[in-house]
Amino acid sequence: MKSFSITKVGYRSGQYGCIAEYFICNHTPKHTKKGLDSFFFSGLYGTEHRIAQALRAKGYKGNETSSQYGRMTRKDVHPRNLEEHETLDWIKTYL
Questions:
Q1: Which domain holds residue 58?
Q2: What digits encode the pLDDT tens for the residues 23-72?
Q3: Which of 56, 72, 68 is nearest to 21 (CA)?
Q4: H, E, C per residue of 5-31
Q5: Which end of the chain has fewer CB atoms at under 10 Å, N or C?
Q6: pLDDT at residue 43, rounded to an integer
């Protein structure tokens, strides 16, 4: 069974408000369907829902998760972080 969960890990804010929200998505790998794989992504205002919708369109079942998160600095952002459009393209191509 293909499944995924999206967890908010933090946000960055600037002088005028929120700059970006950061998430991690844990999912079952495409070929083995065992264990977990993950990717980091960021965006604003509903990004996690658009990513979840793309994963559901690929046949994944979503699981709800909750987390405690806080403000992040530039150094806290994961180096492999994808922007929303990059994440959607990656899902279409590789999952």
A1: 3-94
A2: 999 998 877 767 788 999 999 989 999 999 999 999 999 988 888 888 88
A3: 72
A4: EEEEEEEEEECCEEEEEEEEEEECCCC
A5: N
A6: 93
Domain count of the fold of the chain:
1
Judging by beta carbons within 10 Å of its beta carbon (0-12, 13-18, 19+), is residue 7 exposed, middle or buried? Answer: middle
Residue 33: per-residue pLDDT: 66
Distances (CA, A) of 31 to 4, 54, 76: 15, 18, 31
> Would the pTM count as exceeding 0.90?
no
Beta strands 61-63; 3-14: pairing state: parallel
Partner residues linked to 70 by β-bridges:
10
Task: Find the helix or strand (DSSP H, E) in which 47 lies.
Answer: helix 47-57
